[in-house]
Known about the structure:
Elements: E1 4-12, E2 20-25, E3 46-49, H1 59-63, E4 69-72, E5 75-78, H2 88-92, E6 98-101, E7 103-104, H3 107-115, H4 118-124, E8 127-131, H5 140-152, E9 156-161, H6 167-173, E10 179-183, H7 189-196, H8 201-212, E11 217-223, H9 234-243, E12 248-255, H10 261-266, H11 281-293, E13 299-301
Parallel strand pairs: 2-8, 8-9, 9-10, 10-11, 11-12, 12-13
Antiparallel strand pairs: 1-2, 1-7, 3-6, 4-5
Helix pairs in contact: 3-5
Amino acid sequence: MKPLVINFQKCSIHDGPGIRSTVFFKGCPLECVWCHNPESQSYTKEVLYNRERCGACGKCKKICPHDAIYMKEGCVGLNKDKCELCSTCLDYCVNNAREIVGDEYTVKELLKLIEKDRMFYEESGGGVTLSGGEVMVQDIDFICELARGCRNKGIDVAIDTCGYAPTEHYEKILPYANRFLFDIKLVDEDKHKKFTGKSNDLILKNLKFLNDNGAYINIRIPLIGGVNVDDNNEEVMKMIELLKPLNIKAVNLLPYHDIGKHKYTKLDKEYEGNEFTKPSDEKMNEIKMIFENNNFQNVKIGG
Ligand code: SF4
Ligand code: SF4
């Protein structure tokens, strides 16, 4: 299956060093409860519906050739099983209350877009970041061709990954990636299953594989009260023990936020992370200090 792109973000300063273009691919093997990009989880195109914009005129219901739309309590609902993603309803909505996410690009088209900001990459020490969703579960030959194309043009390539992808994919991308932005969420396996839907076995195996093969690893840790942050820093200490023997070049500590919460409504999904909390600035500094005291270099709060 050809990868779908949800977003091509220019001038990003949170996805690796310098100014970068970030390509967000659609589809992820994990289902993190706190995910702030729920539209990136499914591998297929999806209709998003913005209830605030909808005037409940019912035009889309009338026009839908597949009878996928129904009226409900002053707005409209979507029967996803019936929707064929034909986009007819988008054309008829004067309020632009609907959009379809997930676009197909060729490698050539993406390279052309990436190359446009080459001057910014060169001046800032930036490049391109391939992200998601999860980039490493996409068609790996497509991703390798894209990364190779960037490297051939002298553009730095960062792979932003949750680690849950076949190890052979990491082996294939290794020659073309300058750096891996590798997420570690939880070391405790039971908690990992509970909050992401999957064991962390494969993730830890891939982390070791990259480390043993000399990859530049930048660890990224989302810190979430109610998940991996507590008074005793229990999970943080487990991460330290896990990461200490490895050659980690940089660590980003990412405080939880819920700015993607509204997207769940657009997808007609329920956000289950309402009880999670953002760690205080004091707590974030305390965790940063723990990493630094354990000899980790380039520890930063934020992306
Ligand atoms: S056409 Fe647009 S404004 Fe009218 S009901 Fe459908 S989504 Fe709402
Ligand atoms: S995309 Fe097409 S099938 Fe889906 S709801 Fe809109 S008009 Fe109906």
